[in-house]
Amino acid sequence: MNIPVWQYLVSMSVYIVLLLLIVEFMRKNYKFAAIFWLIALLTFPLWDNQLDGWFRWAKTFSVLVPTAVIVGLGRIAQYEKREGWWNFFRKDWVLWSLYGVLMLNILEASFKDLALGNYFNAISGFILCVTIPLFKKRGSTKRGWAIGKEKPGDLLVYTNPMWNFLYTTWNIAFVYAENPGFAASSLCILLAAELYPVIKKRPELYVTARVYTLATHILIRATYDIFTPIMDSSSFGNEKVVYWWGIINFAMHVPFLFWFIITERKRKKNAKLPE
């Protein structure tokens, strides 16, 4: 499908702005967000027309269910300090589960990369899993993962900006290899997630932005394909680009892994020192 450049620019720009607005609304209206994503699960009968293969189904379930149940109900329970059966969602398992979901989503794509023969990009994905933040910042009460105590009860994840960037370039390289036709639309959700915390000047909101942009994108793709007519990027597919992009990602991820290991060792060593 031959799509003029101006159409990509317009459609992608509109989609990015729309995603930013959705993140902002879902963040500030946490009850609505929980109800919306729970209702979104009822679109399940429509998914069979759009999803093909284990990866699509696994990705859809592993994004929409946690967004609706864990993030949605967890934010309500922890921010409002609800009692009764809500106590179940005020336990540490909520944050541990979200940590696990993020790792699971990276692993799903990484194993798919292996199946496609994109070994360097797959290794980059495994490195991202190892370097997901999961600790309390030294000299700070901020946890690596937390539900904010202030309104609107945000999901706060103190990721490293470099980790965010590496995740973005790894993920778009994976999408480009797995289905180049959706690379343009996937780039939109990745850029929106990068832009949102910058606009808000709150880097701890990166994962929140990623959750809502990805869930929105997955829901649309699972119910009706609106992207192919307006931003199909299959004509840009190139096996050499896939190969070299994977190598470039690998070359960036390995130094970051060593930096992470060294930083972790220093942190643990300093933590043992007497005050």
How many structural domains can be distinguished in the coordinates? 1
Strand % is under 5%
Determine the number of helices (DSSP H or I, runs of at least 4 residues).
11
**First CA to last CA: what distance?**
65 Å
What is the molecular shape? Answer: globular
Number-wise, the strands total: 2
| Proportion of helical residues | over 70%
Strand/helix succession: HHHHHHEEHHHHH
Mean pLDDT: 90
Major sheet, described briefly? 2 strands, antiparallel
Describe what this molecule looks like in 3D.
It is globular and about 55 Å long. The termini are far apart. A two-stranded antiparallel sheet has the order 1-2. It has one domain. It contains eleven helices and two strands, in the order ααααααββααααα. A hairpin with a 7-residue loop joins strand 1 and strand 2. The chain is mainly alpha-helical.
Give keywords.
single chain; about 280 residues; mainly alpha; two-stranded antiparallel sheet; about 0% strand
